[in-house]
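Our preliminary data section would be incomplete without showing what the modeling component actually yields. Below, a chain of 258 amino acids is followed by its predicted structure, encoded as tokens that our downstream tools consume directly.
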Amino acid sequence: MKIGFIQFAPRFGNKKTNLKKIRRLIASVGTDLLVFPEMCTTGYMVKNKMELRKLAEVIPNGQTIRELTQIAKENNSCLIVGMPEIYRGKIFSTAVVISPKGVIAKHQKSHLFLKEKFLFNKGETKPTLFKWKGINIGLGVCYDYMFPEYWRTLALKKADIFCNVANFVYDYGFTLMRSRSIENGVYSITVNRTGIERGQKFRGGSEIISNRGKIIKKSGRREEIYVVDLNLLKSRNKKWNKYNDLLKDRRLEMYNII
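Predicted structure:
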């Protein structure tokens, strides 16, 4: 499967400009699956709930989704896009999956970081897996990286690749997503934004990691597009070596996780 990412700097509060940029950037890419950063349709550095509520949209009925569906259709691609979602009066940082036929899955950010706790609601979706062209794809949003239980759940659901849409201001997330790939034997793609927004600098550095933890691609801090053709079915082989299997070697009787 051809997978890739677009790392860029959204313009805060300007959905029209951001969607125009997404359309322009994707036009040069031929890929099956394309991943974008967290909150890339609106920008991230909201000041308060009132400002955030003005930016959030209903999924799947908002204007942004309609435009992204058209972009997916024009490019015959599946898009994973981070955006603010309003659902039953609550606001979430959501990774939404858009095929040429419209929304096919979404994941609301499970774990909130720093002052997000005062702006967003905790996600209500369980660890989300969807299928695209025969590949099982697991979704996460940014700080979800910190919780191995989350990604192990996706691995047990037979994820072939983990997709994490992010707005990292530290590098820990990349290190831990590599660990998530190693401990579960699953490819991962972590897409960060870049640029400076309301004084906050974002680090870029988007990564694609193999099912054995090898860095396939590490981007810099500038706007970047990258696509690679990978055999993601390799994630289904959990044999670490001749004697060890990453999932079968677990001793469930030894763990008491609450």
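The chain has five helices and 14 strands. The mean pLDDT is 97. Preliminary results of this kind motivate Aim 1 of the renewal.
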